[in-house]
């Protein structure tokens, strides 16, 4: 069982390492999104660069790879806690992708896919927090931060076994948003215009 668990951790990391923003941009002969806009290879930056359909495709891909990693772990009969660690591995792959010189995204969409499989009510709470915050302020980073911060309290209530791996996912997301947090505190973070 120990070897099987390690196998699925590696598979999850490799799945997470597929950057859909970079892949889609390459297939469509577009510039590397890591060199434009916010420099983040994620759905928000793809939208910022002006292509809604590619942003949706990026979101679906990043969310899907997180969900798939946990689904495979569940299919392999790993425990809920082990599935949580597999989800963390997928998020680590997105943030530090081996296929893209460790230049990854911020992990939010991949974490959303992970949470949909691990505990969909907690994912729903986080999605609601994201939607309300974005509607209120039109700042994707603020919405992502507040949505992430709802996860640990939600899991303490809904699925305490997942607290440690999911709290580490949240901490990684906060760390990846450190520059955004600085801009938010300075009042100069980018907003999406209606």
Automatic annotation (TrEMBL):
<keyword id="KW-1208">Phospholipid metabolism</keyword>
<dbReference type="GO" id="GO:0043772">
    <property type="term" value="F:acyl-phosphate glycerol-3-phosphate acyltransferase activity"/>
</dbReference>
<keyword id="KW-0444">Lipid biosynthesis</keyword>
<dbReference type="GO" id="GO:0008654">
    <property type="term" value="P:phospholipid biosynthetic process"/>
</dbReference>
<dbReference type="GO" id="GO:0005886">
    <property type="term" value="C:plasma membrane"/>
</dbReference>
<dbReference type="InterPro" id="IPR003811">
    <property type="entry name" value="G3P_acylTferase_PlsY"/>
</dbReference>
<comment type="function">
    <text>Catalyzes the transfer of an acyl group from acyl-phosphate (acyl-PO(4)) to glycerol-3-phosphate (G3P) to form lysophosphatidic acid (LPA). This enzyme utilizes acyl-phosphate as fatty acyl donor, but not acyl-CoA or acyl-ACP.</text>
</comment>
<keyword id="KW-0472">Membrane</keyword>
<keyword id="KW-0812">Transmembrane</keyword>
<keyword id="KW-0594">Phospholipid biosynthesis</keyword>
<feature type="transmembrane region" description="Helical">
    <location>
        <begin position="111"/>
        <end position="135"/>
    </location>
</feature>
<dbReference type="Pfam" id="PF02660">
    <property type="entry name" value="G3P_acyltransf"/>
</dbReference>
<comment type="subunit">
    <text>Probably interacts with PlsX.</text>
</comment>
<protein>
    <recommendedName>
        <fullName>Glycerol-3-phosphate acyltransferase</fullName>
        <ecNumber>2.3.1.275</ecNumber>
    </recommendedName>
</protein>
<keyword id="KW-1133">Transmembrane helix</keyword>
<keyword id="KW-0443">Lipid metabolism</keyword>
<comment type="pathway">
    <text>Lipid metabolism; phospholipid metabolism.</text>
</comment>
<feature type="transmembrane region" description="Helical">
    <location>
        <begin position="155"/>
        <end position="175"/>
    </location>
</feature>
<feature type="transmembrane region" description="Helical">
    <location>
        <begin position="82"/>
        <end position="99"/>
    </location>
</feature>
<keyword id="KW-1003">Cell membrane</keyword>
<keyword id="KW-0012">Acyltransferase</keyword>
<feature type="transmembrane region" description="Helical">
    <location>
        <begin position="6"/>
        <end position="27"/>
    </location>
</feature>
<comment type="similarity">
    <text>Belongs to the PlsY family.</text>
</comment>
<keyword id="KW-0808">Transferase</keyword>
